[in-house]
Write a structure and sequence with these properties.
Pfam families: HD (PF01966). InterPro entries: HD/PDEase_dom (IPR003607), HD_domain (IPR006674). The structure is a single chain. With about 250 residues, this protein is an all-alpha fold. It has a single domain, classed as Hypothetical protein af1432, CATH 1.10.3210. Helix content is about 60%, strand content about 0%. It contains 11 helices and no strands. Helix 4 packs across helix 6. The radius of gyration is 21 Å and the shape is globular.
Length: about 250
């Protein structure tokens, strides 16, 4: 009798079938996660949309590998989910208090272990700039926290960060620039969150230009250098054009 080609035999082997089923399950889980993000963030402006969450996830996974976390499947799951879901229920866009429970409910539905779920929620709760604005809190957090926070901050600086900054300012009808309104130097969490009288350009000085020094991972620090330099060059050109010198 004719024998099947080796490749065909391999594909019908129980191990291959099991592997195929596992990969299909992984694809299905990824699709569910991304659909949740797209649905929860569809009303946001482009500075905090699903594309931002996907970029942060990809950056966080890349940073985690550079930091040696890829040897732990649990660590990589924490990094991926925390990065992907970190802006769902963001106070700047929250339309309903129930949105604050979306992530936790989703993790329970996905069958995520309690310890992993707790770590994911703690990362999301603690990673915002407003949590550090009153003073640096040296790294007592686990490594997953550092790479997820760094990934979010990397997406806030450089070319993408500039685009996002002006997109957000425009969505709030914020003044582009006013030389008479100076950046605030002594910020608390409360007055940082109150930006009604601030300009978009001041956001660079109040937050974005500070992020390079706040990176917690070595990989994040390396990547921040280039993005930070790009912002400095952009602002130098911006001020020259504003003053009619260029």
């Amino acid at each position: 009798t004719d024998q099947q080609p080796l490749a065909a035999q391999a594909n019908t082997h129980p191990a291959a079938t099991e592997r195929g089923t596992f990969e299909e399950e992984q694809r299905g889980e990824k699709w569910e996660r991304e659909k949740l993000v797209e649905s929860a963030m569809k009303g946001n402006d482009a500075s905090h949309d699903a594309a931002h969450a996907f970029r942060v996830r990809d950056l966080a996974i890349s940073l985690a590998r550079e930091e040696g976390l890829s040897t732990s499947p649990d660590s990589m799951l924490i990094v991926e989910l925390a990065a992907l879901l970190h802006d769902i229920g963001d106070y700047k866009y929250m339309r309903d208090p129930s949105e604050g429970k979306i992530v936790e409910d989703f993790l329970v539905k996905q069958g995520v272990d309690d310890d992993i779920k707790t770590r994911i929620l703690n990362i999301i709760k603690g990673m915002g700039f407003k949590e550090e604005v009153g003073g640096l809190k040296p790294g007592t957090h686990y490594p997953e926290f550092g790479v997820v926070q760094d990934a979010d901050r990397l997406d806030a600086i450089g070319a993408i960060g500039i685009a996002r900054c002006f997109t957000f300012g425009g969505s709030r009808n914020r003044v582009l620039h006013d030389p008479n309104i100076k950046p605030r130097s002594d910020l608390s969490k409360e007055n940082y969150m109150n930006k009604d009288e601030q300009t978009t350009v001041n956001h660079f000085h109040e937050k974005l230009l500070k992020l390079k020094k706040l990176m917690k991972s070595k990989a994040g620090q390396r990547r921040a250098e280039r993005r930070h330099k790009f912002m400095e060059e952009f602002l130098e050109e911006f001020y020259e054009e504003w003053d009619g010198r260029a």
